[in-house]
């Protein structure tokens, strides 16, 4: 299949068709993340219908989230090497098929495969490519664009949570899943909006690299006449492909990305169980079904405010250099909310919790792609986001069943929510110390270069000037230069 012709730009246009990309990503987040959140509303229905405990039922939501994040690199691969449009459309078809097949489920194992694996795989092919595409179209207003695009998760949750509850009451859980399957087909429309864009900083493809960097001009005509099965061509192509693959994923060895990856693991472990158990917990303390669904709606609409306001604020000059600290502050605040949740045992107290948790959840979700772009750069953003969302997979798979096992064992939700809270606080603390250490090192290097500048002596012999300076470790010089460039670009 011939890939669509990409628009040629020297840099991100920061507007134009980029706003249609934002709209497309907004709809993708509604059809993926909002629908995933609303699966928790089916929790009690599945548990009652199949007569299973908390832990076994929680695996459904865990597998959906895990498959979505585990297959995120596959979505990035299809987006990078085929087309973002093709990937999202294919993902929409798979996700819709999974939801429709789930409406005919006769066991939890059936739901594990259809609703969990198949729907999650479809969401994976849509989610990370759509988010990465926004980063390619925006630079100066990147955080605001991401805030608007990611607010689809909150708006979708706000609208879908009561609608799904109503559908369950009117058509049973089978009819509700069937209708959601039709709704998710809108991902195919979203995929059509994702017009490719070519930037100067984008990496060369393997054939271009072979022609421009490996083959001398005198040999180009001869190479074109040679068979494509020639051993020489095969060897060169293999070397080029290996080089391009390394260039695509060389950010994995960056210290900043390693710290971010570890932090993401603990953050993902802490945030997932709350979306699964908020409704069951509210029901267990005497809240009605409609009020429990309304808590999810509140969380969703406040999530929107967090998306947009944090996106706009972190694009301001005064906060643009402190995006990392804004991110870790939001994660830490969500952790504190989880710690206080076990003492909130009626609807009037759970409403402020939904407000607070929803706001800061929207805040840090918006900043995840922004922080990733700041660490690895725009050219590697698609692959890096695939890895970041891949790292969500194992925590998303493990944390809800572990939380369910704790509920079954202890008879209360306290231990589960405390574990979630401490996990998110640890994620925030780890990133905080890493950034402080980086700042201290940068300050030390700046003072070291200033000391060297004062000790520099220049002797002139005719027209030739000789400069004698103290030695400075070359790696530190490169690190300082990279830091200076990144801050000047911001």
Overview of this protein structure:
The protein contains 20 helices and 4 strands. The protein has 490 residues and is mainly α. The strands form 2 sheets. Strands 1-2 form a two-stranded parallel ribbon. It has a two-stranded antiparallel ribbon with strand order 3-4. Mean pLDDT is 77; it is low at 1-5, 203-243, 457-478 and 486-490.
Short description:
By secondary structure, this protein is mainly alpha-helical.
Provide the residue-averaged pLDDT: 77
Please report the total strand number as a whole number.
4
Query: Roughly how much helix do the residues carry, as a percent range?
Result: over 70%
The total count of helices amounts to 20
Low-confidence region ranges: 1-5, 203-243, 457-478, 486-490
Largest sheet: 2 strands, parallel
Report the order of strands and helices. Answer: EHHHHHHHHEHHHHHHHHHHHEEH
Please report which band the strand proportion falls in: under 5%, 5-15%, 15-25%, 25-35%, 35-45% or over 45%.
under 5%
The span between the termini is: 39 Å
Spatial ordering of strands, largest sheet: 1-2
Nearest-angstrom radius of gyration?
25 Å
- Based on CA inertia axes, which overall geometry fits? globular
Structural class: mainly alpha
SSE inventory with pairings:
Elements: E1 7-9, H1 18-38, H2 43-50, H3 54-70, H4 72-81, H5 84-102, H6 108-137, H7 142-184, H8 187-193, E2 197-199, H9 206-214, H10 217-225, H11 231-249, H12 255-284, H13 289-313, H14 317-320, H15 323-340, H16 347-376, H17 381-391, H18 393-410, H19 414-454, E3 457-461, E4 464-468, H20 474-489
Parallel strand pairs: 1-2
Antiparallel strand pairs: 3-4
Helix pairs in contact: 1-6, 1-7, 1-8, 3-6, 3-17, 3-18, 4-5, 4-6, 4-17, 5-6, 5-7, 5-8, 6-7, 6-17, 7-13, 7-16, 9-11, 12-13, 12-15, 12-16, 12-18, 12-19, 13-16, 15-16, 15-19, 16-17, 18-19
């Amino acid at each position: 299949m011939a890939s669509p012709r990409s628009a040629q730009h020297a840099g991100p246009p920061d507007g134009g068709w980029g706003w249609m990309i934002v709209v497309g990503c907004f709809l993708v987040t509604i059809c993926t993340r909002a629908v995933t959140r609303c699966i928790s509303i089916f929790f009690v229905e599945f548990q009652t219908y199949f007569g299973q405990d908390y832990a076994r039922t929680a695996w459904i939501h865990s597998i959906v989230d895990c498959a979505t994040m585990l297959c995120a690199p596959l979505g990035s691969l299809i987006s990078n090497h085929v087309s973002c449009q093709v990937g999202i459309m294919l993902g929409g078809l798979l996700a819709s098929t999974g939801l429709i097949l789930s409406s005919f489920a006769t066991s939890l194992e059936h739901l594990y495969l259809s609703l969990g694996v198949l729907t999650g795989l479809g969401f994976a092919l849509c989610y990370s490519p759509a988010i990465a595409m926004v980063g390619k179209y925006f630079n100066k207003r990147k955080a605001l664009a991401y805030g608007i695009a990611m607010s689809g998760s909150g708006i979708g949750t706000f609208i879908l949570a009561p609608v799904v509850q109503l559908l369950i009451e009117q058509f049973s859980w089978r009819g509700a899943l069937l209708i959601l399957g039709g709704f998710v087909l809108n991902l195919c429309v979203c995929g059509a909006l994702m017009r490719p864009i070519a930037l100067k900083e984008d990496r060369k493809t393997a054939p271009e690299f072979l022609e421009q960097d490996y083959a001398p001009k005198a040999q180009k005509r001869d190479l074109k006449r040679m068979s494509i099965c020639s051993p020489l061509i095969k060897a060169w192509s293999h070397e080029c492909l290996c080089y391009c693959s390394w260039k695509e994923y060389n950010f994995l060895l960056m210290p900043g990305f390693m710290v971010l990856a570890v932090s993401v693991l603990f953050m993902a472990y802490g945030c997932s169980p709350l979306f699964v158990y908020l409704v069951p917990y509210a029901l267990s303390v005497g809240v009605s079904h409609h009020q429990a669904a309304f808590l999810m709606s509140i969380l969703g609409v406040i999530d929107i405010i967090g998306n947009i306001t944090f996106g706009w604020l972190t694009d301001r000059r005064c906060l643009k250099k402190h995006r990392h600290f804004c991110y870790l502050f939001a994660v830490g605040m969500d952790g504190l909310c989880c710690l206080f949740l076990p003492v909130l045992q009626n609807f009037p107290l759970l409403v402020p919790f939904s407000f607070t948790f929803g706001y800061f959840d929207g805040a840090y979700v918006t900043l995840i792609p922004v922080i990733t772009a700041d660490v690895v750069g725009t050219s590697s953003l698609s692959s890096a986001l695939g890895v970041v969302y891949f790292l969500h997979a194992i925590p998303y798979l493990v944390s809800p069943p572990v939380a369910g096992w704790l509920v079954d064992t202890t008879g209360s939700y306290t231990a589960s929510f405390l574990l979630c809270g401490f996990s998110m606080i640890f994620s925030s603390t780890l990133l905080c110390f890493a950034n402080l250490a980086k700042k201290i090192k940068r300050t030390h290097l700046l003072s070291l270069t200033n000391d060297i500048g004062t000790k520099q002596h220049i002797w002139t012999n005719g027209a030739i000037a000789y400069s004698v300076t103290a030695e400075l470790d070359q790696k530190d010089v490169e690190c300082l230069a990279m830091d200076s460039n990144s801050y000047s670009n911001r």
